[in-house]
Amino acid sequence: MNKEDETKALDLLRKQALELGAIEAMIIPVEKIVIEDRVVFKCRLGCEKYGKTLACPPHAPTPSEFRKIVSEYHHALFMKFMSKAEGDLELIKYLAKTDDPSVPTEMKAKVENFWSDWKEDMRHLRETVIKLEKEAAEKGYLLAVGLVSGSCHICEKCSVETGICVHPALRRYPQEGVGVNVKATAEKAGLKFTLPFNKNPETYALLLID
Description:
Blueprint: H1 3-19, E1 24-29, H2 37-46, H3 63-71, E2 75-82, H4 89-92, H5 105-138, E3 145-147, H6 182-189, E4 202-209
Antiparallel strand pairs: 1-2, 2-4, 3-4
Helix pairs in contact: 1-5
């Protein structure tokens, strides 16, 4: 594929991402993807999903492994989505306390609704990434592969004890789980990263293309 055809193909993928629900999408060189060991270190210390899904650390590729993988690609499609889950600064304080008996009853209901909507958004995000992988393959990028935001929600309980994923064709690693600093990558891509969110949280996805 010559440079002109490649530019057109990549721009088509960017436009398809927007058609599938991304609010912003940018083609970036892979050198703009920020990969840091401290991101996974934070997972180990602060994420309740650590070690509980086969898409999360320590079962995901390490930052060192992912750096090598990324170095074999040239382009990436970095996408920003807006979740339908709604919340405010008050709700944010309770999002990690779903089982805490001190959480007010009315707030528990809001938290449950938030996570239900978030889970549905993550399903849609994963499906979007898989569709874009297929679109990229049809354009000649047979090794295109996507990453999503957040932990895997395909199964109610992951088969982590056996070490064998029940849905390997659907599983996609979270960017954070392989060391991607999403905030820094968004900034390098020229996208505004907002946290804490005002009403609806942002989500991000990444498609490696080559």
